[in-house]
């Protein structure tokens, strides 16, 4: 890069992204945010499944919805899109030509799904020994579930998360976003970066086997180890914490607030501000371990105090005393929050089909002091960069680009791709 634009951490790294939906695209979007050149391979005329997962869709210049869904936009910025028909021999050859120009391949086909195209890791590793090949599946490359289709919802259920989410007396509850997919994407990102480090030192690529179920089990973290250590199966506790009390949504005089007491000193400060000297001195509540053991009694006693003050009074008063607390906001309020605004967590990226000229996206949360995240490209329209990639990455001339489209390997821009 030249001029005043700072070098990005992954400048010079190229990713071939054969993934779709959320886990793989989350990983490749993050790598794109870090400066990698991400080539998103999509099916001609269909593209990523999530393009159809709406409404809402981007509003076009004619005031009507486009094919660009909010779901798709959420995890596909900083990528270039090329359409390739993997079912055609010409398309398969084209992928191999692209692999030769890439450092990493990310895919989320079912186990064995790329073998029929001659594009599995086993098919490619001999010809491309330095290739980092990341496979994301529901259940991994081995084990009795390996050939099953896997989705975020299934991983949350099978992986135990739903058993500890939701109210005690309610049904098992999934998290409101596809968190198993997102976390699998985060683990995959870290693994790819580690594999690139190994490749750079040794020249040796490798396959990364990343599964939704495995990563879901891994991030059970404290609740998982609580069970392994005690043998007691954790149960749903609503908003309460299994190991810290009080740690819950509390009722105020005009709504609710979150109270997250992390130690005995903070509990004493809460009691002082609440005027709850009786609770401060109660031998059942003097330490966190005692409060955990007597949580039912403490939570039954606290509302008589919490209802005496408004949410704002609780938040301001406790924050001044160093007691963690906060409001429960809806998503509109989140993006209006002064801290979220100050941290620039909403961005607007130019988009060729948007009526307003831009689309709103959620920013990458990582702040680098020397190599800041750059939002170079909006999530691409289907096949938007097909001609560009064929020309600039593979050196194809206009005749070859047209021939590839005519033979059904791809859909060139001039042959009907999005512009």
Describe this structure in words.
The chain has 2 domains: 14-219 and 343-415, Crotonobetainyl-coa:carnitine coa-transferase, domain 1 (Rossmann fold, 3-Layer(aba) Sandwich); 247-332, formyl-coa transferase, domain 3. Helix content is 35%, strand content 15%. The protein is built from 18 helices and 13 strands. Strand 9 and strand 10 (256-260) form a beta hairpin. Helix 1 packs across helix 6 and helix 6 (179-202) packs across helix 7 (212-218). The longest helix has 24 residues, at 179-202.
List the helices and strands and how they pair.
Layout (H helix, E strand, L loop, with lengths): L13 E5 L4 H11 L3 E6 L14 E3 L5 E5 H4 L5 E5 L5 H11 L4 E4 L13 H4 L7 E6 L14 H7 L20 H24 L3 E6 H7 L2 H10 L16 E5 L4 E5 L3 H11 L2 H5 L6 H6 L1 H7 L1 H4 L4 H10 L4 E2 L4 H6 L1 H5 L3 E5 L7 E5 L23 H7 L5 H9 L13
Parallel strand pairs: 1-2, 1-6, 2-5, 6-7, 7-8
Antiparallel strand pairs: 3-4, 9-10, 10-11, 12-13
Helix pairs in contact: 1-6, 6-7
Poorly predicted sequence stretches spanning 5 or more consecutive residues: 414-419
CATH-scheme architecture of the largest domain: 3-Layer(aba) Sandwich
Q: State the CATH class of the largest domain.
A: Alpha Beta
Beta percentage is: 5-15%
Query: How many individual helices?
Result: 18
The oligomerization state is: single chain
- Fourth-level CATH superfamily of the largest domain: Crotonobetainyl-coa:carnitine coa-transferase, domain 1
Number of domains: 2
Assign an overall shape.
Answer: elongated
Radius of gyration of CA atoms, rounded to a whole number: 26 Å
Main β sheet profile:
6 strands, parallel
The secondary structure category is alpha/beta
Give the helix proportion (percent range). Answer: 25-40%
Spatial sequence of strands, sheet with the most strands: 5-2-1-6-7-8
Number of strands: 13
What is the CATH topology descriptor of the largest domain?
A: Rossmann fold
| Distance between the first and last residues' Cα | 26 Å
**How confident is the prediction overall: mean pLDDT?**
95
């Amino acid at each position: 890069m030249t001029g005043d634009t700072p070098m990005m951490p992954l400048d010079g790294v190229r990713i071939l992204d054969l993934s779709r939906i959320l886990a793989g695209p989350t990983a490749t979007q993050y790598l794109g945010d870090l400066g990698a050149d991400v080539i998103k391979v999509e099916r001609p005329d269909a593209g990523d499944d999530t393009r159809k997962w709406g409404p809402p869709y981007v509003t076009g210049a004619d005031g009507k919805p486009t094919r660009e869904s909010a779901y798709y936009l959420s995890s596909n910025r900083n990528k270039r899109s090329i359409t390739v028909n993997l079912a055609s021999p010409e398309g398969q050859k084209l992928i191999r030509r692209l692999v030769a120009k890439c450092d990493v391949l990310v895919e989320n086909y079912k186990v064995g799904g790329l073998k029929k195209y001659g594009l599995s890791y086993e098919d490619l590793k001999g010809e491309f020994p330095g290739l980092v090949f990341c496979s994301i599946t529901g259940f991994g490359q081995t084990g009795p579930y390996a050939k099953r289709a896997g989705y975020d919802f299934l991983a949350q259920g099978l992986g135990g998360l739903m058993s500890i989410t939701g109210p005690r007396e309610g049904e098992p509850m999934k998290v409101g976003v596809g968190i198993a997919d997102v976390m699998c994407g985060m683990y995959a990102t870290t693994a790819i970066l580690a594999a690139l480090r190994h490749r750079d030192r040794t020249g040796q690529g490798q396959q990364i086997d990343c599964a939704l179920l495995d990563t879901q089990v891994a991030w059970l973290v404290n609740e998982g180890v609580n069970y392994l250590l005690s043998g007691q199966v954790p149960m749903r506790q609503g908003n309460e914490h299994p190991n810290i009390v009080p740690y819950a949504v509390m009722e105020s005089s005009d709504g609710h607030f979150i109270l997250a007491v992390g130690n005995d000193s903070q509990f004493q400060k809460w009691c002082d501000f609440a005027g709850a000297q009786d609770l401060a001195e109660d031998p059942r509540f003097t330490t966190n371990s005692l409060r955990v053991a007597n949580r039912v009694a403490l939570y039954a006693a606290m509302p008589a105090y919490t209802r005496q003050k408004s949410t704002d009074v609780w938040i301001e008063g406790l924050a001044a005393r160093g007691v963690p607390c906060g409001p429960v906001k809806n998503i509109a309020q989140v993006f209006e929050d002064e801290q979220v605004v100050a941290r620039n967590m909403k961005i607007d990226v130019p988009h060729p089909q948007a009526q307003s000229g831009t689309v709103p996206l959620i920013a990458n949360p990582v702040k680098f002091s020397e190599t800041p995240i750059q939002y170079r490209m909006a999530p691409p329209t289907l096949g938007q960069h097909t001609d560009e990639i064929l020309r600039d990455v593979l050196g194809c001339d206009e005749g070859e680009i047209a021939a590839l489209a005519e033979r059904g390997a791809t859909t060139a821009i001039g042959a009907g791709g999005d512009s």
